[in-house]
Amino acid sequence: MSENYKAGFMRFICSAVPIMLVLYVLSIGPVIRALEGPEGIPAKYEANLEVIYAPLSWAFENSELFRRFHIQYYAIWSKYD
After folding, report:
1. CA angle at 67 for the pair 30 and 35, rounded to the nearest 5°
2. In this structure, is residue 53 part of a structural domain?
3. Nearest-5° angle of CA 43, CA 46, CA 50?
4. How many Å apart are CA 27 and CA 53, to the nearest integer?
5. CA distances (Å), 5 to each of 12, 31, 52, 69, in order?
6. Is residue 6 part of a domain?
7. pLDDT, tens only, 23-81
8. SS3 6
9. Does position 18 have pLDDT exceeding 90, yes or no?
10. What pLDDT does 16 receive?
11. Distance of CA 64 to the CA centre of its chain
12. Any domain includes 18
């Protein structure tokens, strides 16, 4: 591989990973909007969402800053809040 290819690949990885992490954190909003009903998230989706968003649950429980952000972000996307 050429040095230019290696440098370009590393630049791509170094920019793609943080962007993907931010998109992962922000993806909970549209998911809530799409799945939420008047009684909350239907039970058939809860187990999957708990697995997919387990790292966000951990951050919610252990970080006051993340908790405040998440509560406000949830309020923006929630249809019934």
Report:
1. 25
2. yes
3. 160
4. 10
5. 10, 37, 34, 39
6. no
7. 999 999 999 899 988 888 899 999 999 999 999 999 999 999 999 999 999 999 988 75
8. helix
9. yes
10. 96
11. 17
12. no
In DSSP notation, 31-73 reads: HHHHH-BTTBS-HHHHHHHHHHTHHHHHHHHH-HHHHHHHHHH
59: containing domain:
25-81
- Please state at what angle helix 3-26 crosses helix 28-35, rounded to 10 degrees: 40
The domain tally of the chain equals 1
Neighbours of 32 (CB within 10 A): 19
Residue 17 lies in a domain: no
Residue 73 contacts by C-beta under 8 Å, 6 or more apart in sequence? 26, 28, 29
Dihedral of CA atoms 71, 77, 79, 81 in degrees, nearest 10, equals 10
Residue 29 makes CB contacts below 8 A (sequence gap 6+) with 73, 74, 76, 77
**Phi, psi for residue 37 in degrees, rounded to 5:** -115, -175
